[in-house]
Amino acid sequence: MSLRARLTVWYTAVLAGVLMLFSAAVYGLLSYSLVAQIDANLDKTSADILAASQQDMRTVTPPRIQLTGNVYVQVWGLDADDEPTLITTNLATIETPFDATTLTSRERVYSTILLEGARLRVLTVPVGVAGVDQVAGYLQLASSLDVVDRARSAMAILLMSGSGIGILIAALVGYFAAKTALKPIDRVTNTAVQITRADDLSKRIPLLAPPQSEVGQLILAFNETLERLEALFDAQRRFLADVSHELRTPLTTIRGNVDLMRRMNALDASSLDAITTESDRMTRLVQDLLLLAQAETGRLPMVKECFELDTLLLEVFQQAKVLSHGQVQVKLGDEDQVLVEGDRDRMKQVLLNLVANAIQYTPEGGSITLSLRSEGGEAVLAVSDTGKGIADEDLPRIFDRFYRADPARQSQEGVGAGLGLSIAYWITRLHGGTIDVESKIGEGSTFTVRLPQAMEETRPLTL
Ligand code: ADP
User: Fold this and answer.
1) Nearest 10 degrees: CA dihedral of 242, 243, 248, 254?
2) Measured between alpha carbons, how far is 324 from 316 in angstroms, rounded to an integer?
3) CA 335, CA 381: separation in Å to the nearest integer?
4) Domains of the chain by residue range
């Protein structure tokens, strides 16, 4: 069932329920008050009759029917066997009790009876004789319920037809209201279908409703999703272009050198070296890409063990001194003892990537400082350099795949493919940590890795 139909059905059903309850209440109240009026009339007439006879059975006389406002009166005495015998009545045609069942009661009692096809309301009043505390007879008064019944059936017809028409109108209005309210959703659907057909993610759904309305919110959310998808597809396209580009450069070099040797008809040592270097570069690139793909999908195999980050930092420090070839000074800053949990080799890869960058982007004579501090349950590793720094506009993007702040250098020998920081970012993230950078052009950069510290009890014993 469509949403429109469901809304209409619900709306109509609720309205029908409310109308039925309301009708029942009105009908009940009307019946009650009409019968109460008749009862009051019977009561008043009986009181008048009894007052006129001074409550004495022997002098009770029913007034003429014209004087009682259509109240029929019977006076019943009791014979020697306590059987009721009709003494007098103002409705001569009927000589049986209006209601025989109540002629034994010791209390005043109201009843409703059917007499010769007519519904009557009957009041039975026990009457005594002055000075004797005993029932000597009964005064029975009856009034036709015809008016009440007619009023009741008229009201029932009115309520039923009124409710029926009301429900019908409500259903129609509800249907059209739902149709109008849901129209923008149809338009959103149509636009979405058009976008899918045209395969054009740059299209957006025009804001067909106020932004705060439900439909407005839907459109905004949908547009946001489209924006995300577009960005994702763009990134994928760029990624493919980048990978092809990165692979083409070494392949061209390899091809060129092979052609050269073929023409020379001899093996050339420098050509073979170039082929080896380029195939190594390609292997590295493919390995890095695989690692990134695994890390991003959470499938990177990782050892989970506790290790001393301070010892790892010392190892990297020694390696950094070798890598720097003495061109930059490598220093060790704070070195707190910190335990972390994770994959030691992968963390070493992160630190080496940061150190390799620092060495690469710091001119001769500069310095690099490695430090490790324990801060509020976190291990804070920092690699800072006095190198060329990173421009503000590049900072938000340097952790992106293939991003290089200085594209002119991209094909240079020894310069990475722009994957090192992405790998560092993902490995840190998989360790539950974060990586940040602060940098100033011309002054240097500081990369900070924060990792959750492992519990002290798990620290392995060192002899
Ligand atoms: P690459 O392989 O090009 O070094 P990375 O992902 O490691 O790739 O780094 C991305 C870019 O960030 C680099 O191309 C460089 O422009 C910039 N960068 C990284 N580290 C530093 C640093 N210590 N100083 C200046 N720029 C840096």
Assistant:
1) 140
2) 12
3) 9
4) 3-152, 214-296, 305-458
Tens digit of pLDDT for each residue in 219-263? 899 899 989 999 889 888 888 898 898 889 899 999 999 999 999
Best residue among 393, 411, 421, 437 to mutate for probing ligand 1, ranked by most atoms within 8 Å of CB: 421
Q: Which of 67, 35, 52 is nearest to 143 (CA)?
A: 35
Q: What is the pTM of this model?
A: 0.60
The tens digit of pLDDT for each residue in 365-424 reads 999 999 999 999 999 999 999 999 999 999 999 999 888 877 655 545 555 788 999 999
Which helix (DSSP H) or strand (DSSP E) does residue 402 occupy? none
CATH class label, 305-458? alpha beta
Distance 249 CA to ligand 1 centre (A): 20
Atom of ligand 1 minimally distant from the CA of 406: 16
405 lines ligand 1 (CB under 6 A): yes
Is the backbone of residue 144 left (phi > 0), alpha (psi -120 to 50) or beta? beta
For residue 62 and ligand 1, the question of a CB distance below 6 A is answered with no
Which CATH fold topology does 3-152 show? Answer: Beta-Lactamase (3.30.450)
- CA–centroid distance, 206 to ligand 1, in Å, is 41
- Going by alpha carbons, the residue nearest to atom 17 of ligand 1 is 405
Residue 418 Cα to ligand 1 midpoint, Å, equals 7
Is the minimum distance from the CB of 385 to ligand 1 under 6 angstroms?
Answer: yes
Select the CATH number that applies to the domain covering 214-296 from these four: 3.30.460.10, 3.40.50.11460, 3.60.40.10, 1.10.287.130. 1.10.287.130
Element (H, E) at 452: strand 444-452
Residue 33 has a pLDDT of 96
Classify 377 in phi/psi space as left (phi over 0), alpha (psi -120 to 50) or beta: left
Q: Mean pLDDT check: name the lowest of 73-82, 117-126, 272-281.
A: 73-82
